[in-house]
Write a structure and sequence with these properties.
By secondary structure, the protein is mainly alpha-helical. It is built from five helices and no strands. It has helices at about 1-5, 10-20, 20-25, 30-45, 100-110. α2 (about 10-20) runs parallel beside α4 (about 30-45). It is globular, with a radius of gyration of 15 Å. The two termini are about 25 Å apart. About 15% of the residues are buried.
Length: about 110
């Protein structure tokens, strides 16, 4: 996992965190700061008040509903895509060499996925 992320530029890492915060925010081996940003993004998109205090403060309203949080990363307007996980095994299996999920992440990072 760490080797995969070390091979990406900072912009590529951030793109994965923005598009797939729930995936990037969890596995061991992802740089801690990137995991933090991905998890913060997920918390901001979560409308559950039990967890609102965990999300970092931010200014402005991005989703237009007046509550100041961001869009739901699983919503249609967010731009996230489902990542195939048929060949992934275990918690960090999404990034295992040769898996369909890793091929999808590489495609996203290269800007080839639409």
């Amino acid at each position: 996992m760490n080797r995969f992320f070390r091979g990406l530029t900072a912009a590529q890492q951030q793109a994965l965190a923005v598009r797939h915060p729930l995936v990037v925010g969890n596995p061991d081996g992802v740089p801690v700061a990137l995991r933090y940003r991905a998890n913060a993004r997920s918390l901001q998109a979560n409308h559950d008040p039990r967890y609102a205090h965990l999300a970092p403060a931010h200014s402005g309203t991005r989703d237009g509903n007046g509550d100041g949080d961001g869009p739901d990363p699983t919503g249609r307007n967010f731009g996230a895509r489902r990542v195939p996980a048929h060949e992934a095994h275990g918690h960090t299996g999404y990034f295992a060499p040769g898996t369909d999920s890793l091929r999808a992440f590489v495609s996203i990072t290269k800007g080839e996925a639409r």
